[in-house]
Design goal:
This protein has 145 residues and is an alpha+beta fold. The protein contains two helices and eleven strands; from the N terminus they run βββββββββββαα. It has a six-stranded antiparallel beta sheet, with no helix packed on it. Strands 4-3-5-6-9 form a five-stranded mixed beta sheet, with no helix packed on it.
């Protein structure tokens, strides 16, 4: 039974699932677990591997080609459930139950945004001003009739 899987979200892999347990090799070579026959993909492009039995690691295997993790080019990076991996025009979402990236658990990440409260205040104030203006115009029109 596989522990992890890549779920294709765009490109030639859309709606395809690629389950794996230990390693998963991405590239254009026939020896790859996920074969991508398209321009911009190296024969052995990237690899996802299980490290120390509990962490997942994404490695870009060919420095002449780009591997993106959540939109950022990487050479080697730890993975968490929900991460987006992009090779060429193909994108996947990593499904790794119980594996959460540390960046999601920081106090900064869970802190409420001040900008959101500012937006709510501004829009509420604008709505109240427009409502007051409409009521005033309605009352003035009523007095002149």
């Amino acid at each position: 039974m596989s522990l992890y899987q890549l779920k294709g979200t765009s490109g030639s892999v859309i709606n395809q699932s690629f389950p794996f347990q230990d390693t998963l090799l991405l590239g254009s070579s026939e020896q790859c677990d996920v074969r991508l026959a398209e321009p911009g993909v190296a024969p052995r492009h990237a690899e996802i591997s299980v490290v120390e039995g509990k962490r997942l690691l994404l490695r870009n295997l060919d420095p002449g080609f780009e591997t993106l993790l959540n939109g950022v080019p990487v050479d080697q990076q730890a993975l968490g459930s929900g991460d987006e991996i992009r090779v060429g025009s193909c994108r996947w979402m990593l499904q790794a139950p119980g594996l959460r990236p540390e960046r999601l658990l920081t106090a900064e990440a869970v802190k409420p945004s001040r900008v959101r409260w500012l937006r709510i205040f501004v829009w509420t104030t604008l709505a109240a001003a427009v409502a007051a203006m409409l009521v005033t115009c309605y009352l003035l029109d009523c007095l002149w009739i």
